Amino acid sequence: MAKDVKPTRKNLMAIEDRIELSERGHDTLEQKRDGLIMEFMDILDKAQDVRGGMEEDYQTAQKKINMARAMEGDVTVRGAAAALKEHPEITTESNNIMGVVVPQIESSKVKKSLDERGYGVLGTSARIDEAAEAYEDLLESIILAAEVETAMKKMLKEIETTKRRVNALEFKLLPELYNNQEYIEQKLEEQEREEIFRLKKIKDKKEAEEKAEEEAAREAEAEAAETVDAD
Amino acid sequence: MSSAQGANPEYVNARIRARRAKLFDDEDYRKLVRMGPSEISRYMEESEYEAEMNALGSRHSGVDLIEYSLNRNLAENFEDILDWAGGGLYEQIASYLRKFDAWNVKTVLRGVYSGASRDEVASDLIRAGEFDDRFLERLLDAQSIEGVVELLDGTIFERGMEAAFPEYEETDVLVPLENAADRAFYENLIAELGDYEPDSALALYAGFLKAEIDFRNARNALRLARSGADLDPAEYYIAGGDLFSEGQLSSLVSSTSELVSVIRDSEYGDELGQALAELEDADSLIGFERALDAALQEYADHLSHVHPLSVTPVLSYIIAKEREVNNIRAIARGREAGLSEDEIEKELVTI
């Protein structure tokens, strides 16, 4: 990667800007990740309670329906269930937790009074009422669990994404930028050193030439003096 | 036989005694409670239920086969009783067995309402009432709730259904029609009694019917009181009992404790005392309902000994047979659902 970068001062400045931006982004994302984890832990506690409650409601509802089926008969229970056409209604709204959009589920017509369940009261028994009531409770628990567990899953996904981004910055992008910066700095220093060396060489060459010229001039003068003496 | 012939309680009661002797006793229940569903099926195949188990074995299986066989056996037993009885006795028995007509009306209404298939609805009918097969087939063919209500013209359900139909149309809920069917059955039962001498067999029979209505009102009042919903108690009241008047019931529904104390101070207080005490502590009505069923059975048994040559032994048998069917079904369904022997035994109503 570092080999692909042109070791110019302009690139160095651009890389330094990117490093600054990435470091800032890394810190922000780290804070976001920690915040999300804290929110997630709260939701996790709630989800565990809700799931525990739901399992309890499920056991109760199963027991009540088994009792109703045993004592009143499957035909009676099925008949009572068939007397209800209206379904519970569910509306979803969204809630924002640290930038994560989680659903907020509102339910209506889940809990029903005796006259809303459809079956006649005069010919049925409390066993049917209790089974219906237990299933209404279970349905409410399921709706709450759906809300909390969806929020939990979305938070978890966001934590994963943020963690990946933090790691990408920390272990990939920033090291690469640091490498590039170091490479360019080294290259620039090397170029500087070469330039100094080259200038030095030129200077030495020039000095040698001047010296040679001086030498030649001195020799010429000496020769001329000898010629004059000989004459 | 039919109502055109003379009443024949001696003959009917002799036949009834024979049938009653064949009912499952405590020992049978003890055995059944320890069996699995398939063992229960096998046991039933070797009992009074053999014919029904074999006839329905190709259509149903498992506990469903047991339940449908029990229902068919019940219907055939009651049909036999109507065949044996004549005159006023026939009228009295037929009048009581109209509870199955009410059941069938509600089943057909629910089937039409929920869009269930004709076969499904037909298999849930209990053909033990006054409606004959042809009439039940016409009910099953009805395409709409209005069609069912129209078909009921000329039956005891006509008036109640017609009165409740506008409310059904307004609310699109079956409650008014179902309540009308049950109310028509009970009110017709009392209306058909006519005048009777005090201390006569008919008076005792009337006392039993009133007790049944009182118990039904008591359990429904407690259900309304427990539900806490703002419902009009008058809509859930069955006239004909001695325990509550309509106005009394309306004022008592708001307080469970007052309701319990009224029942405790009534003539049923002794039989239901223990169940009422448990009811005050428990948050479930099931124990109380079980006590009501047992008390009714006990009352019917007592009446059958007081006036053996009347409708009361037949009534006692009808209730005992229904109890047997309920108990066997409870054991089979309970075993299927994995309930323990103790849990099932607690739920059984045995005298």
Give the arrangement of secondary structure elements.
The complex is a heterodimer of chains A (231) and B (351).
Chain A: H1 9-72, H2 74-82, E1 89-97, E2 100-108, H3 126-230
Antiparallel strand pairs in A: 1-2
Chain B: H1 9-21, H2 26-33, H3 37-45, H4 50-56, H5 62-84, H6 87-114, H7 118-124, H8 133-141, H9 145-151, H10 158-171, H11 175-191, H12 201-227, H13 246-252, H14 256-265, H15 269-281, H16 286-306, H17 312-336, H18 341-347
Helix pairs in contact in B: 1-17, 3-5, 4-5, 5-6, 5-17, 6-7, 6-11, 10-11, 12-14, 12-16, 14-15, 15-16, 16-17, 17-18
List keywords for this structure.
A: 231 residues; Helix Hairpins; B: 351 residues; mainly alpha; 72% helix; globular
CATH class of chain A: Mainly Alpha
Number of helical runs of chain B? 18
Report the strand count of chain B: 0
Give me the CATH architecture of chain A, please.
Orthogonal Bundle
Sheet having the most strands of chain B: none
Strand content of chain B: under 5%
Shape of chain B: globular
Number of domains of chain A: 1
Short précis:
The complex is a heterodimer of chains A (231) and B (351). Chain A has 231 residues and is mainly alpha-helical. Chain A has helices at 9-72, 74-82, 126-230, and strands spanning 89-97, 100-108.
Task: Describe what this molecule looks like in 3D.
The complex is a heterodimer of chains A (about 230) and B (about 350). Chain A has a two-stranded antiparallel sheet with strand order 1-2. Chain A is mainly alpha-helical and about 230 residues long. Chain A has one domain (about 10-175): Orthogonal Bundle (Helix Hairpins). Helices cover about 75% and strands about 10% of the residues of chain A. In chain A, helix 1 (about 10-70) packs across helix 2 and helix 1 (about 10-70) packs antiparallel against helix 3 (about 125-230). The longest helix of chain A is centred in the C-terminal third of the chain and has 105 residues, at about 125-230. The radius of gyration of chain B is 20 Å and the shape is globular. The interface between A and B is large, with 31 and 57 residues.
